[in-house]
Design goal:
alpha/beta, Rossmann fold, six-stranded mixed beta sheet, 51% helix
């Protein structure tokens, strides 16, 4: 089964809208792929749910719990320094490395410009949907 890390914006978009990020998250819920997350990504996601979608802390915690229900959590040490233009993106890469993910799903230009890191390919949400569909054939 394909393992992937979704960056915070993909998780956020999957929560607020019904586009490709939502479809990606649905694949995880339907057990067609494995979502890898870390505490740091979930903390940033929790914060964005409150600041951008104006959820209460309780609503944001419930939403994070829904993600946790279909995800594998890994522990990162915040030791990786790869994305010089946006060091916050390093946690996404480290999460993928530790979780042995094949893909990072992102819309972030810094991650997309990286294209791949140690064999982990960075793709957009719509590309990931196609990859999972191919894998399931």
């Amino acid at each position: 089964m394909i393992k992937a890390v979704f960056d915070t914006n993909i998780l956020f978009s999957a929560t607020g809208w019904r586009g490709s990020p939502y479809q990606c998250l649905k694949l995880m819920r339907d057990k067609k792929a494995t979502l890898i997350v870390c505490r740091e990504i979930l903390a940033e996601y929790h914060e964005k749910l409150q600041t951008k979608l104006e959820m209460t802390a309780e609503e944001a915690s419930r939403t994070v719990a829904e993600i946790l229900a279909c995800a594998t959590v890994v522990e990162i040490k915040n030791e990786l320094h790869v994305v010089l233009d946006d060091p916050d993106d390093d946690m996404v890469i480290e999460c993928a490395v530790v979780g042995k993910a094949a893909y990072i799903v992102s819309g972030d230009k810094h991650l997309l410009n990286l294209k791949e890191y140690e064999g982990i390919v960075v793709v957009r949400a719509n590309e990931f949907l196609g990859l999972v569909a191919e894998d399931g054939e």
